[in-house]
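Quick one, probably user error.
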């Protein structure tokens, strides 16, 4: 094994990949990541998640995490790029039903689904409990030039052994980096956690290791004051999205409204207060 050595940041900069945006398929989200214009030094929209990033999407149940993952996967499939989709929660046959509906709502032909390769860790316990077996299965898709990875959810890979969450997340993260994949990885928050924090079932292991964190939340409007603040009637659910950090690019730090449209697609709205 070659001995590790120090390298100058300038030397490494020459080898660094360009900062390119990968469109998310979620209206209003791509503009929330930015780079700097080299001439004016003003923020310039990146047009999506940073290419090669491992993006953590977290929230309690029914906040839109899986919708975001599916829209991202289908957007890449529409672009003709292969996606590796690990499902630990929903069996593949049911996942495909949702993908078909989402594709229809996005105006895509069903043929795009051939670009989404599914590893059914919800059905096959070995894929969920043995990371090496999972990686070996995913590597079959690399031969088809897979460029993206979706894991819904990471929590399903360590739910019975939360003490090992950091080790599990590091291995999945290393796999995505080793194969230069742009990844979306979902984690499930406990309902008792503060709504807009990045904390998830594995403690802070997930958000500390991955490159960016997108937090989704929801609130049931229960008082006249909340109804006035959020401009929603009593009894309605208001949803939010915030980017909690991104190592690879700049990002909007405000909390935004998040909508689930009647056709079943996520859309990011204006920031709170607008």
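Nope, works fine. Designed sequence:
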């Amino acid at each position: 094994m070659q001995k590790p050595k120090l390298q100058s940041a300038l030397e490494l900069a020459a080898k660094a990949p360009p900062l390119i945006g990968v469109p998310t398929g979620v209206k209003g989200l791509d503009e929330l990541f930015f780079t700097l214009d080299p001439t004016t030094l003003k923020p310039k929209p990146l047009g999506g998640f940073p290419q090669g990033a491992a993006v953590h999407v977290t929230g309690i149940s029914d906040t839109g995490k899986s919708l975001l993952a599916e829209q991202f996967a289908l957007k890449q499939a529409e672009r003709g790029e292969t996606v590796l989709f690990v499902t630990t929660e929903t069996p593949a046959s049911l996942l495909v039903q949702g993908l078909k509906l989402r594709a229809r709502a996005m105006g895509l032909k069903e043929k795009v689904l051939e670009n989404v390769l599914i590893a059914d860790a919800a059905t096959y316990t070995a894929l969920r409990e043995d990371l090496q077996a999972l990686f070996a299965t995913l590597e079959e898709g690399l031969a088809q030039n897979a460029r993206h990875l979706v894991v819904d959810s990471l929590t399903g890979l360590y739910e019975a052994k939360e003490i090992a969450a950091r080790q599990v997340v590091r291995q999945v993260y290393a796999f995505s980096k080793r194969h230069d994949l742009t990844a979306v990885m979902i984690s499930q928050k406990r309902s008792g956690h503060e709504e807009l924090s990045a904390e998830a079932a594995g403690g802070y292991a997930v958000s500390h290791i991955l490159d960016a964190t997108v937090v989704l939340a929801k609130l049931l409007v229960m008082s006249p004051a909340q109804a006035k603040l959020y401009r929603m009637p009593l009894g309605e659910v208001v949803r939010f999205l915030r980017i909690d950090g991104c190592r690879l690019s700049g990002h909007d730090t405000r909390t935004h409204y998040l909508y689930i449209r009647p056709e079943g697609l996520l859309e990011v709205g204006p920031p709170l207060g607008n």
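Residues 65-78 form the longest helix (14 residues).
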